[in-house]
Design a protein that fits this description.
It contains 6 helices and 7 strands, in the order H-H-H-E-H-H-E-E-E-E-E-H-E. By secondary structure, it is α+β, with helices and mostly antiparallel strands. The protein folds into 2 domains: about 35 residues, no CATH class; about 80 residues, RNA-binding S4 domain (Structural Genomics Hypothetical 15.5 Kd Protein In mrcA-pckA Intergenic Region, Chain A, Roll). The longest helix is centred in the N-terminal third of the chain and has 15 residues. The radius of gyration is 20 Å and the shape is globular.
C-alpha cells in the first residue's frame, strides 16, 4: 500500500516526463479508488449478491411492494446499504431480520460466501392462519 501512496506523491514528476495533464490522472486515480473501496452498495445488488433473492429484478419488485425495510424504514432499490444496517425481508411464507456484515465491491465474481455477508437476527415462519 505504501508503493501506491508513493506513486501518488511523486506523480507530477512522472506526468511531466509523459507530457500528460495532471487533472486527467487525478480524476482517474480518485475514480478507481472510489469504485473499488466504496463502503456502500445498492440494496437490490446486496440482496442479489448475498443470495437472499434469486434475481435483481425480484429484489426491485420486493422493494417496490414495501416488503423490504432498512433500519425500520421502507426502502427503494437504490438505497445504499453499509455494514451494520439491519434489513427485514418479508417473503410470502416467512420474515427474516438480518444485519449486513460486509458489502461487496462489485457484483461480478463474488467469492464471499453468503454466511460472511450477513447475520440472521431472526427468522419467523408465517402460517396460513396468520395471514
Amino acid at each position: 500500500m505504501n508503493d501506491f501512496f508513493d506513486l501518488i506523491r511523486f506523480y507530477p514528476v512522472i506526468l511531466s516526463e509523459l507530457f500528460i495533464r495532471p487533472a486527467v490522472i487525478r480524476f482517474a486515480i480518485v475514480k478507481s479508488l472510489y469504485l473499488r473501496y466504496n463502503p456502500f452498495v445498492r440494496l437490490d445488488l446486496f440482496l442479489k449478491t448475498s443470495r437472499l433473492v434469486k434475481r435483481r429484478t425480484v429484489a426491485q419488485e420486493m422493494c417496490g411492494a414495501g416488503k423490504v425495510l432498512v433500519n425500520g424504514h421502507e426502502a427503494k432499490p437504490a438505497k445504499e446499504i453499509g455494514t451494520g444496517d439491519t434489513l427485514r425481508l418479508s417473503y410470502t411464507t416467512r420474515t427474516i431480520d438480518i444485519e449486513a456484515l460486509t458489502v461487496p465491491a462489485t457484483s461480478k465474481n463474488i467469492k464471499i460466501p453468503p454466511e460472511e455477508m450477513y447475520r440472521v437476527i431472526s427468522d419467523t415462519k408465517i402460517t396460513q392462519e396468520d395471514v
